[in-house]
Amino acid sequence: MGSVGNGWPRGGGEIGELLRHPAFHAVGLGPVESWPASLKHIAEMVLNSRQPKFVAWGPDLAFLYNDAYVPVFPERHPNALGRPFREVWADIWEQFSPIIANTLQGSSQLFKELLIPMRRDGHTEDTWFTFSYTPLRDDDGKVAGILCAALDVTDQVSAKRGEETALEELRAKSEALAVVNRAGAAVTAEPSVERLTQIVVDAGVTLTGAEFGAFFYNVDDDESGSYMLYALSGVDRKNFEKFPMPRNTKVFAPTFDGEGIVRSDDILLDPRYGQNAPHAGMPKGHLPVRSYLAVPVKSRDGSVIGGLFFGHGQPGRFSQAAEASLVSLAGQSAVAIDNIRLFRAAKVEIDQRRDMEDQLRKLNEMLEVRVAAEIAERQQAEAALQQSQKMESIGKLTGGVAHDFNNLLQVISGNLQLLGKDVADSGRAKERISNALAAVERGSRLASQLLAFGRRQPLEPTVVNIGRLVTGMDDMLRRALGEEIEVETMVSGGLWNSFADPTQIENALLNLAINSRDAMNGAGKLTIEVGNAFLDDSYSRTHPEVTAGQYVVLAITDTGSGMMQEVMEQAFEPFFSTKPEGKGTGLGLSMVYGFVKQSDGHVKIYSEIGEGTTVKLYLPRSFQSEDRITNVDSVPATGGTETILVAEDDEGVRTTVVEMLTDLGYYVLKSKDAQSALTVIESGAHIDLLFTDVVMPGPLRSPELARMARERLPDIAVLYTSGYTENSIVHGGRLDPGLELLSKPYTREELARKIRHVLANRTHRRQGASDAVAPVPEHPDIAVEKLKLLLVEDDAFIRMDTAEILQDLGYDVIEADSGERGVEILGHTVVDIIVADVSLPGMSGPVFAAKAREAFPSVGLVFATGHSSLPDASRLSGSVLLSKPFSSTALERAVKTAVQQRPVG
Q1: 424, exposed or middle or buried, with CB in 10 Å at 0-12, 13-18, 19+?
Q2: What is the pLDDT of residue 589?
Q3: Predicted TM-score of the model (pTM)
Q4: Please, what is the average pLDDT of the chain?
Q5: Which terminal CB of the chain, N or C, has fewer other CB atoms within 10 Å?
């Protein structure tokens, strides 16, 4: 997405123009150029939508809406734009505050035809809205706002309510059928049986002069098969209610069977009603009429669906005209009843269709909200991915440049140091050489920062407690920042360990602290916090480069000037700086970014103009115990008399380093590539140390050269050097266990210290081997402290627990998850003991152990297995069985025995 100056937001109609105005500020968010990327993405989507929508974002829920939303509150526009939600909708805040609170807790909500009393044109009126509320997340995965898609359905609801009122009136006024004579014709939208009965009775009484009429109707039969609806004229209803006329009354059977008309000219008797005579003087079983006429009502298909019954209190006979009229009325009644049936069926279908349409509309509304949220999340993730890919591309370029640059610096540095000895008596020459070496050192730092950003520096990670590391830097930070900067360090209790390069952690913290000092103009407060953190799946969805899991977080917060959004988006790019020209390289944050990424971590900036800045470094948690760190700088920078073979393809570098080593007193052999170095080794010459560049031409790689050198000279020490590792001895951004590396460019003192350190380790390892053949002392920590142990176990939990036990016992433990990885480690690392699982995937434990014995005939072997004995292939000389599950005591005993029993030679 472009910046404000490039026309953000794109489109957006009238509201877009208002947002692009330089004077526009949203409460709590400031001008649009300082908005976070996540808000920009969702705001642009809303502005260009044709459906009424708004976004409420930030601590004050700044109200941002589109052109389609303006008709909802025309008198509040444009003053509402960018104002707090509570202020914009003060009249309905009490109704909506619980809905907003639930949404900000992460719950999506949908409301259908919600009544909202709203202030419009100076008075409150009822309005109805269908709308959805969806929580919106910021760049850190936290809920920061609300997205609303709304639809004003006031007119539809009002129309529907008017239709219902009109229908009631129509039902009350309409007639169910056309009746003869004065009954007239009537049409109904939804005829009712009760109304039809009244119409039929009224018409029948008019036609016949009968004092009583009843309409039998069985469209909706109950369990008895029929029921009776009736109306009375001049007859006591209570008396007649005592004589229900079910369909199975024998007298009326012909009518209900469709055989014809049933009539009576005088009293009707029925024994069943004998005890229910309505008044004195009537015989038992007499109905409360003296004469009656029953006419069948037939449907269009000829089936009998009911009957008409008319009677009066005097004996007599209905006239033929009246009877004919009643028959005609029965026919009209049948039409009306059929219409009732059809109407009811249609109404059921209409109601079902209306329900389906409501469900479909609800689904569409929810789908649009979900699509909008998904698009916003995807745009946010794509932006993060593009930024990550850009940083990766720049990193590859800078890493390649740094490689060649380091070789040049090494030649310049080495020759300047050698020249310094030749002009030792000339103070002016020494000063010039000192200035040149200072420039080389600055160039070396620059190359180191480029490598760090490009994730190409060879890290040497250890299990470290960052809280203890940071606390130990307190005095150094106070000296570097000055007295005007207040430094506060807070370390959480129960802090986890992390797996990272402690030197690079120190460099990163120092870089960030100095940046903070500059942002505070030399005066302010710097807060350093170390704690545990968990980045969940929702966070990793919006940050594709982040793996969800447990991290140790190092946060550095200052009270400085803060950053704008555009500055934060570029802060990690190499050579980007807001400092005046000549005041900074723009590589400090780049180095921090590259180191954290290379360590499988995550880095995040939080900043606001005038509110300071927080930078958080997330480094992966380690479940192992903290490593003991050896300080190479404590080794004296002295020379020696050992023989060193130098393998270096760059002629300038080779010449310089040979002269430096010779000047330190060493006897030096040299070769231009790995193949010629192997020729020297195979010549039988005595060699104490192989000093080889990592990257050299030819088919033979340096790690393979080192492995073959150890096969021929088991006591040889190996030291690698490189300005760029290209993953040959670095895997996953980390130096392989057991390797020693001197990064280019290096000084004469650094070279001297590193050579003595590597040779001293060789002596310790040799001494440890000679001690191991003797009985193990009662306190094994002293004897086994220098023994290097390779643990090969494919189960991560078993490997982790076993490694921790062995480290507590004092062993230098290297871990491998397969036999293949174990062989790779043995190619460049000398080990004293191997603890291997028998049932490894791929290469089995016994096969791996056989290969290990070929490389190191005297290595001690411990086989861990769930079986009670070792398989034949595992019975190598001196091997020890460790039965699973095993205790720490059993593990210690097995390793001790393997040390005592390992072959000599």
Answers
A1: exposed
A2: 76
A3: 0.38
A4: 75
A5: C
